[in-house]
C-alpha cells in the first residue's frame, strides 16, 4: 500500500502521478537565493507567532526574495484543506478546529513587520457552516484596525458560490479581492474537482459588482493550449477582473500532476502584451511569478487605471495607498517580467 510520510493512503490519482519522475527544470527557472537578515527575522516571527504562510506551505520559489524585501503572504484557516487540487502543495485532510484568535495574530504580525501591503489567503473550510467567511472577513477588519497604513489583498476560495458568505467577505472591503481560476475550462474539472470554472468567474463578477478591485491567476504547464489561455484571459476580463498574474506550474512532489511543458519567457511576455491589450489594469507574467508576487504594485496599477481621480487613494480603513503614474507602473511591471526572463 502506498502511503505519504504522515501515513495517509495515496489516492489512485497520486499513485498514477508518481509513475512520472519529477521533471528537470530549465535554466530560466532558477530563483535567487538570498538568506539575509530580513529573511531570518521574518522566518523567526512566523514561527514564534504560530502562523502559516503560503510562502512555505506552497513552496513558493520567491520566498527568499520576498521575505528579504519584507513582503509575505499569510495562510489562514490552518494548513489542511478540505479540497484537493492536483497542482497544490497544501495538504488535503480534516482541518483543525477554527482558531478565532488567528486574525489578531496575523494583524499583529503585519504591524510588527511594518508591511505596507499584506496578502492573506487560506484553505477551503467546507467543514464550517459559513465556509470560513467570518475568518477571512475578520482578518481584513483587524488588519485595517491595527495597521491603518496597510492595504490588504484577500485571496479567497469560492465559498461554494453561497451569496451570503461571499457578501460577508466583500463587506470587509479588502483593497483587492482575488480568486484564482488557475486553468482553462477544458481541463478545469480534472485539475480542480472541488471548483467549477463558471462559478469562479461568478465570484469575480460579484466582487466587481460590490465595488472591489478584482484579481485572478492562470497557471501554465498543466496541459492547456495557447489558444485556450487567450480565451481564458478574455473570459476573465469580461467577468470584470482587473488584475491578472500568469505563472509556470512547478510540481510540488512526485504525487502531484506532472509538468506538461516549460513555458519559455518569451511566451510569458507575449501573454502579458495580450492581456494588457484586452484592458487589464495590471498584468504580471513570468516563469517565477506567483499570484501574490509584488501584489502591492499590481494594486497600484489598478488604482492608477481607475477613471475617477482619487488622491490620496484610501482603503476602507482610511489607509493611504500610493497612486503612481500609470505609465510608470506599467514600466515597472515590464521590468519584473524581464527579470524572470
Task: Describe the structure concisely for a colleague.
The chain is an alpha/beta fold and 341 residues long. It is built from 13 helices and twelve strands.
Description:
The chain has one domain (33-339): TIM Barrel (Alpha-Beta Barrel). It has 13 helices and 12 strands. It has helices at residues 12-17, 37-48, 54-57, 63-68, 102-113, 133-146, 163-170, 185-191, 197-209, 226-238, 265-278, 295-305, 326-339, and strands at residues 52-53, 73-76, 80-81, 91-92, 117-122, 151-155, 176-178, 213-220, 243-248, 282-285, 313-314, 320-321. The strands form 3 sheets. Strands 1-2-5-6-7-8-9-10 form an 8-stranded mixed beta sheet, sandwiched between helices. Helix 6 links the parallel strand 5 and strand 6 (151-155).
Kindly report the spatial arrangement of strands forming the biggest sheet.
1-2-5-6-7-8-9-10
CATH topology: TIM Barrel
Average pLDDT works out at: 83
Number of helices: 13
The helix-and-strand class reads alpha/beta
Low-confidence stretches: 309-333
Let me know the largest β-sheet: 8 strands, mixed
CATH class: Alpha Beta
Helix content class: 25-40%
**N- to C-terminal distance:** 43 Å
- The CATH superfamily label reads Aldolase class I
Key attributes of the depicted protein:
single chain; 341 residues; alpha/beta; TIM Barrel; 8-stranded mixed sheet; two-stranded parallel sheet; 13 helices; 12 strands; 13% strand; metal ion binding
What's the arrangement of secondary structure elements?
Layout: H1 12-17, H2 37-48, E1 52-53, H3 54-57, H4 63-68, E2 73-76, E3 80-81, E4 91-92, H5 102-113, E5 117-122, H6 133-146, E6 151-155, H7 163-170, E7 176-178, H8 185-191, H9 197-209, E8 213-220, H10 226-238, E9 243-248, H11 265-278, E10 282-285, H12 295-305, E11 313-314, E12 320-321, H13 326-339
Parallel strand pairs: 2-5, 3-4, 5-6, 6-7, 7-8, 8-9, 9-10
Antiparallel strand pairs: 1-2, 11-12
Helix pairs in contact: 5-6, 6-7, 10-11, 12-13
Amino acid at each position: 500500500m502506498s502511503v505519504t510520510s504522515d501515513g495517509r493512503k495515496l489516492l489512485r490519482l497520486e499513485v498514477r502521478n508518481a509513475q512520472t519522475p519529477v521533471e528537470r527544470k530549465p535554466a530560466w527557472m532558477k530563483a535567487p537565493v538570498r538568506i539575509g537578515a530580513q529573511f531570518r527575522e521574518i522566518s523567526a516571527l512566523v514561527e514564534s507567532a504560530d502562523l502559516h504562510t503560503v510562502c512555505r506551505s506552497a513552496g513558493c520559489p520567491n520566498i527568499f526574495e520576498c521575505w528579504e524585501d519584507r513582503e509575505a503572504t499569510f495562510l489562514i484557516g490552518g494548513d489542511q484543506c478540505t479540497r484537493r487540487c492536483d497542482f497544490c502543495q497544501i495538504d488535503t485532510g480534516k482541518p483543525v478546529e477554527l482558531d478565532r484568535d488567528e486574525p489578531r495574530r496575523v494583524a499583529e504580525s503585519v504591524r510588527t513587520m511594518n508591511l505596507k501591503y499584506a496578502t492573506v489567503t487560506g484553505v477551503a473550510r467546507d467543514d464550517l457552516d459559513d465556509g470560513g467567511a467570518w475568518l477571512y472577513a475578520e482578518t481584513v477588519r483587524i488588519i485595517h484596525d491595527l495597521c491603518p497604513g496597510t492595504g490588504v489583498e484577500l485571496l479567497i476560495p469560492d465559498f461554494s458560490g453561497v451569496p451570503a458568505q461571499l457578501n460577508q467577505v466583500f463587506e470587509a472591503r479588502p483593497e483587492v479581492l482575488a480568486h484564482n481560476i488557475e486553468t482553462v475550462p477544458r481541463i478545469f474539472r480534472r485539475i480542480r474537482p472541488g471548483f467549477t470554472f463558471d462559478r469562479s468567474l461568478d465570484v469575480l463578477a460579484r466582487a466587481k459588482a460590490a465595488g472591489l478591485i478584482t484579481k485572478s491567476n492562470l497557471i501554465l504547464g498543466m496541459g492547456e493550449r495557447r489558444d485556450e489561455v487567450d480565451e481564458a484571459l478574455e473570459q476573465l476580463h469580461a467577468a470584470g477582473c482587473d488584475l491578472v498574474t500568469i505563472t509556470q506550474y512547478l510540481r510540488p512532489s512526485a504525487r502531484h500532476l506532472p509538468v506538461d511543458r516549460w513555458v519559455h519567457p518569451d511566451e510569458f511576455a507575449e501573454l502579458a502584451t495580450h492581456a494588457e491589450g484586452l484592458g487589464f489594469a495590471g498584468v504580471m507574467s513570468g516563469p517565477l511569478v506567483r499570484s501574490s508576487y509584488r501584489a502591492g504594485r499590481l494594486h497600484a496599477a489598478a488604482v492608477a487605471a481607475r477613471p475617477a481621480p482619487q488622491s490620496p487613494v484610501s482603503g476602507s480603513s482610511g489607509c493611504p495607498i500610493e497612486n503612481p503614474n500609470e505609465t510608470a507602473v506599467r514600466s515597472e511591471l515590464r521590468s519584473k517580467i524581464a527579470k524572470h526572463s
